[in-house]
Amino acid sequence: MEPLQREKFNQSIIQRVRSVIDEYNLFTDGEKIAIALSGGKDSVLTLHLLNGFKDEYNLQLVAISVDEGIQGYRNEGIEVARENTRKLGVELVEKSFEGEFGIKLDKVAGKYKSACIPCGVFRRYLINRTAYELGADKVATGHNMDDEIQSFLMSFARADFRRFSKFGPKLEQIHSRLIPRIKPLWKIPEKDVGAWVVLNGIPVHFAECPYANLSLRGKIKNYLNQLEEDHPGSKMAIMESFQKTFKNQETPVELVECQRCGEPSSLDVCKACEMLENINSDI
Ligand code: SF4
Question: 163 CA distance to ligand 1 centroid (A)?
């Protein structure tokens, strides 16, 4: 692609992200944003975009990478996270399931229907707690438009309507220790993220997690890609239905502090503490 065309494409991504930032007020002047950085293309684009907006919005940036303990997979992602943050001069804080919980995902995955269940619980917990300790105002994740549509359909498939309140590009603060999450790539399709990486020669970790295809998300993702191929525009139509739906949702449940660890939880004991207790009782 010609440099001019590439620049036009880059600008179109920046404009779409800017429209989400402004329309949903993702952050305000001077805030500290913690970027959940796996090293995959979505989180790397999020890092680069927010770094580009840093001066304009007077942002302080920090990145958080989590090593779940997935052999032959995560190490490369962490290397990529280090390379990108080093280049941009953004601080990177590294955490691991082993260091924080004394477990590796590979060792406990077999206990669950899908490895993504404990992975998601422990990763969200660790990123939120780390962001809180760092004094962050927001946690920015790399969720793109495809991810959001998948999450939407997963909630339908599970009849988990409470989760609808978690959709949208910005979650409001519902507990003092729960750092609100923002999704700057909310309007960016996954294929555009991939194109940005290739066109700009940005180092990212392209490999897919070995557990991804076994998950409900993986199956819905494959189905949606096929649907889009057969009926172009389907993804966007689902996203529009979703936007109309989530706007009508009530505020999510009230949170309390977990009796074991003090982190925000919808129950007396948070999911991470409950899982850890089950895992440790089997050792
Ligand atoms: Fe974790 Fe599942 Fe994502 Fe792999 S695909 S990193 S197991 S949530």
Answer: 19
